[in-house]
Amino acid sequence: MLRNTESKNLVMSTQVLVLDDNPAIVDSIEMMMEFEGLSVSKFYKGSDMLNVLNTQSRPDVILMDMWLSGEDGRDICRQIRTDENLHDLPVIIMSASRGLGQTALDAGANDFIAKPFDMDDMIKRIRTYIKS
Amino acid sequence: MENLSDNSISHDSLLTLFSKAPVAMALVTGDELIISNANPQILELWGRDASVIGKPLFDALPEIESQGFREIFALVYQKGEIFNGNKWSVFLHKYGNYEEHFFNFIYAPVYNDDKKISGVSIVATEVTDQVISEQKLKESEYRFEDLIKQSDYSIAIYRSKDLYIELANEPMLKTWGKDSSVIGQKLEDALPELEGQPFIKILKNIFETGESYMATEDEVFLVVDGELQKFYYNFSYKPLKNSLGEVYAIHNVAMNVTDQVKARKSIQESEKKYRDLADSMPQFVWTCDKDGRITYMNENWYKYMNISKDENANEAIRKIIKPSVYPHIVEIWEQSAKTGKPFEVEYEFADPQHPGVYRWFLGRAVANFDENGDISQWTGTFTDIDDFKQLQTQKDNFLGIASHELKTPLTSLKLYTQFIEASLTRQGDAKNGEVARRMNNQIDKLSELINDLLDVTKIQNGKIQLNESEFNFDHLVDEVITEQQMTARHKIISSQHQIGNITADRHRISQVMSNLISNAIKYSPDADEILVSVRSEPDTITFSVKDFGIGIPADKQQKVFEQYYRVSGTKEHTFPGLGLGLYISSEIIKRTGGKIYVHSTEGKGSDFCFEIPKVKI
């Protein structure tokens, strides 16, 4: 609950929303994003993220993992695409399963990035969706 | 006559005796041998009537004069000798026929009162029928003996209960390994080795029962060439019976079938040996004719299929093949049946012991050819590879999961490292920033190794997918070279090229290029440069990487594209790697519709090339 409350506050000014079930990945991405001057909101569960997205203002881009401990990032992506408020929200799916890139795009993701990735490459892609 | 008179026997009585006696008699007198008396019996013998009485003998029977009778009569009449003719052959004109007759006769001199020979008495009995039947009998005996002697079969006759060898033809003597001296001996004396064998008893028994005895492929032990040997015979003992139905001898016919029996036994033994071999194998072994009809299946296969030998094996197999793959299997089989090339395919059979369960099998068959080079039959096996398949799946799953799991910490590790590099660089600590950059490079290498493991798993599962797109080939070549050059000590020299756009999986093609260049660097530790060249043909592009390194022996050049193949020899352990790179590259190129190959000279270097179509067909 505490995390949700934090998230709510952060979402207000967030540019990048990061969703991964692995805290170390979320943490390292956050470090890099902030280093690059981007504001980040962190989520570890897809359902938590969707709750927040439905009640709060939108980020510029979502960066999320494909396998989320019982949730499939592609399903979450499809839900976003069918939501009348969120359907045009940029989504980048990342995964260590390189071969599944096409399935991510098929699920409606704007981009796919294979783990492990180069931060410069990631930042470059993220920035194409940052509004200001 | 005087003597007769002396004994007071009347002349008439004598004449009566003479004419009524049941033997043929005549009396010839004088030098001309006048027939002075001839009873009806002798007239009958001669085939003449009473008109011959009073005529000289040789006028009455002119045909006998030249048959030696003149000489015989001369002997009796002139010298007084009695002549006995026994089964004498005489040709007579009788009732219009000139025929041979046989007689027993006695010619005796007849004396007159002066004790001088006055004539010759003739007493004769016709024995023609007897002689002819004797002759016929003899001829038939000769013929029989001849038949026996000429026969290819071994024949012998044993007479009386003591089994005297009355007759044994050459083949029989040969069979026994004896000479003709055994004829006349008792069988048990001639062949003492028969003691303890059942034959003597059987033979003697026939004298009691009067019944024939037949045997087929019976074992007989005989001393031949001084050695007790085992033979096989087909033989018969048949009783020979007299007119009273009593057995007086046994007719033995035998045929040596030792060679045939041995040959058959040897075939049977050999067949049994291979049958046992096939039955004891855990694999399922079978044969079928050229049209695919099952002709043999080993025990284990019947057991697995849970069918009896009377059931239709082809039908039983068809029933247990997984229905979804059946048409595919039939197609592969028909291809093999047409070409005679080995059949090899992995497929699933239902497990009759566990309904609903399928097990993986490796089916293999090779054609056997006849002397004309035509397919005579197929010999095949089904090997249960279900456990192996499961292990393989487990291994692949494990590798897939493991590599995925390994990448997760690697992802954050890489990000942290890059963060350190960026921070240090921003702080102006270029030296430590460079260290962090190198750390990042090593993380990339680790990542590549993990990707290789994952790729192999995908290749084996047939899951590797090519994501094709149109891209500029020249740019890709430059990109890969630049990237490789960053970590290479060698100078990578590239030829000029102007290929333009092609359609393929950019990422996978770059993976192959990187693999060929990094191999070239790895295996040429003493060289300074690597030559990369790109050539354009109308429909294809050839990319090649030439090094001046250790090279590959001719016999190993094809093996380098196999999974887990590593450079062999003393330097083997000095080169790093999992032995997967060229295997993955070769699979990628194959799936792209191209080919990969190497020209190499041991000690001089290698030239690895791949050739891909510009547009995938």
Q: What does the model show?
A:
The complex is a heterodimer of chains A (132) and B (617). Helices cover 44% and strands 17% of the residues of chain A. Chain A has 6 helices and 5 strands. The model of chain A is unreliable at 1-12 (pLDDT under 50). Chain B has 617 residues and is α+β, with helices and mostly antiparallel strands. Chain B folds into 5 domains: 2-128, 2-Layer Sandwich (Beta-Lactamase), CATH 3.30.450.20; 151-261, 2-Layer Sandwich (Beta-Lactamase), CATH 3.30.450.20; 281-384, Beta-Lactamase, CATH 3.30.450; 390-461, Signal transduction histidine kinase, dimerisation/phosphotransfer (DHp) domain (Helix Hairpins, Orthogonal Bundle), CATH 1.10.287; 469-613, Heat Shock Protein 90 (2-Layer Sandwich). Chain B is built from 18 helices and 22 strands. In chain B, strands 2-1-5-4-3 form a 5-stranded antiparallel sheet, with helices on both faces. In chain B, strands 7-6-10-9-8 form a 5-stranded antiparallel sheet, sandwiched between helices. In chain B, helix 14 (386-427) runs antiparallel to helix 15 (430-461) and helix 15 crosses helix 18. The longest helix of chain B has 42 residues, at 386-427. At the A-B interface, helix 2 of A face helix 14 and helix 15 of B.
Anisotropy-based shape of chain B: rod-shaped
Rg of chain B, alpha carbons: 57 Å
Estimate nothing, just give the exact number of structural domains of chain A. 1
Ends apart, CA distance between termini of chain B: 145 Å
Return the CATH architecture of chain A.
Answer: 3-Layer(aba) Sandwich
Query: How many structural domains in the coordinates of chain B?
Result: 5
Short overview:
The complex is a heterodimer of chains A (132) and B (617). With 132 residues, chain A is of the alpha/beta class.
Q: Which key features would you list for this structure?
A:
heterodimer, A: 132 residues, alpha/beta, Rossmann fold, five-stranded parallel beta sheet, 6 helices, 5 strands, 17% strand, disordered N terminus, B: alpha+beta, Beta-Lactamase, 5 domains, five-stranded antiparallel beta sheet, 18 helices
